[in-house]
């Protein structure tokens, strides 16, 4: 009996050791994504419906490059003089570039809900209008997926050929490292690149309506209407004048205007609460989607991307591309599509000897 128990324990230990060794394997993933003009003979059609890609728990290696954490820096900056006009902020910041300060208006003392409430600051760097195709990082090894350094890119010749080819646009060329796990434990990574259409279109490809500008236009038109009618009403008696004013105010309210409780952006910062509650990105990029790598005896890749193309009717056409492939480490793989091409090479990577990755879900958020 004791021998059976002992053998069972040894077998479990050996299995655990094998599984541990498998999960310790690190890979370097290099990926190129490019858009291409489909052949004129293409018979396949793509509908107008937009397939939403929700990042969910996907890890994001791009956003930290675009929006670094500035909270520590801002905590050390003093408040600027309240007498500085908002329109002079830029010139003022230039004049005291060696002594920066926080220019955001702070709440009054009676508006504070906590005596030690932190200062109000805008700590997010605005997203750029477009991203460069090449995205790399420091290459410093950590125990979770991270961007590799620029020197790790080995498919630069292919990238150059794509750039020189007519009708194609290189959207993303990146390299990162991760330790793949099984499909059940694998977590996707989110990648986006190209143009930022957020100012012109919403997630569904429809033109963004500037509600404030539209309301201001309506208010200006209504004010002009009131002014004209008041001038005409001067020739009537006071009863007719008051009746005309009352009627015009009713029309103004019916036409719609800015909310009565409208406040400035500093008092009510704009957040994408509606989108985040639906777990959708709050930025509309030319390319946006997910990549998942998992290891079950073999390497498997799952990709899911939305490619956005300007359409003739002042909207964005969204091409949804979803593909799966078993891949072999070291080989170059090509995932083809009439509108989107993906070139992949997954290489074995040996982490530095002093940095052995710990095995946990955060470490192995592989893909």
Helical percentage: 25-40%
- How would you spell out the order of helices and strands? HEEHHHEEHEEHHHEEEEE
Number of helices: 8
**So what's the oligomer here?**
single chain
Structural class: alpha+beta
Number of strands: 11
Average per-residue pLDDT, rounded, comes to: 77
Main β-sheet: number of strands, strand sense, barrel status? 6 strands, mixed
Low-confidence stretches: 14-22, 256-277, 359-367
How large is the radius of gyration? 29 Å
- What is the 3D shape? globular
Beta-strand fraction estimate: 15-25%
Compute the separation of the termini in Å. 43 Å
Short structural description:
With 367 residues, this protein is of the alpha+beta class. It has helices at residues 2-23, 63-66, 71-76, 89-95, 156-164, 211-233, 238-255, 273-277, and strands at residues 26-36, 59-60, 134-135, 146-147, 168-178, 189-196, 285-296, 298-310, 316-327, 332-335, 340-349. Helix content is 26%, strand content 24%.
Give a topology summary:
Elements: H1 2-23, E1 26-36, E2 59-60, H2 63-66, H3 71-76, H4 89-95, E3 134-135, E4 146-147, H5 156-164, E5 168-178, E6 189-196, H6 211-233, H7 238-255, H8 273-277, E7 285-296, E8 298-310, E9 316-327, E10 332-335, E11 340-349
Parallel strand pairs: 2-6, 3-5
Antiparallel strand pairs: 1-5, 1-11, 4-5, 6-7, 7-8, 8-9, 10-11
Helix pairs in contact: 6-7
